[in-house]
Design a protein that fits this description.
This protein is of the alpha+beta class and about 90 residues long. It has one domain (about 1-90): 2-Layer Sandwich (Alpha-Beta Plaits). About 30% of the residues lie in helices and about 40% in strands. A five-stranded mixed beta sheet has the order 4-1-3-2-5, with helices on one face. Helix 1 packs antiparallel against helix 2.
Length: about 90
C-alpha cells in the first residue's frame, strides 16, 4: 500500500479537474481526496496499491483534456488508518 500527496500545477481549476480526478481514482481503485488550493493548483491525497498509484500519477501528468498540467509534485506519506473512499473537498 502506498499513500501520496500530489500537487498538480497548471490550468487545473475551473476545468472540472476534481470531477475527472475522482472518476479516474474510482477507476484505479484509489481512496483519498482532491481539492483546489488558493494558489490555483490542485492537491490530491491518494492511497492504493503501488501499481494503481503509479498509473494514477501518470494520468495526473496529463489530466483531462480540459486542463493543462505544467508540473506535478509528489510527496510520499505514511499510511496510517486506511482511507475508505475518494472525496472532492470543496
Amino acid at each position: 500500500m502506498r499513500k501520496v500527496q500530489i500537487k498538480v500545477i497548471g490550468r487545473v481549476q475551473g476545468v472540472y479537474f476534481r470531477v475527472f480526478t475522482q472518476n479516474k481514482a474510482k477507476h484505479f481503485g484509489i481512496k483519498g481526496s482532491v481539492k483546489n488550493l488558493a494558489d490555483g493548483s490542485v492537491e490530491i491525497i491518494a492511497e492504493a496499491e503501488h501499481i494503481a498509484i503509479e498509473n494514477f500519477i501518470k494520468w495526473c501528468h496529463k489530466g483531462p483534456i480540459t486542463a493543462r498540467v505544467d508540473l506535478v509534485e509528489i510527496v510520499d506519506l505514511t499510511v496510517e488508518e486506511p482511507l475508505t473512499e475518494f472525496l472532492i473537498i470543496k
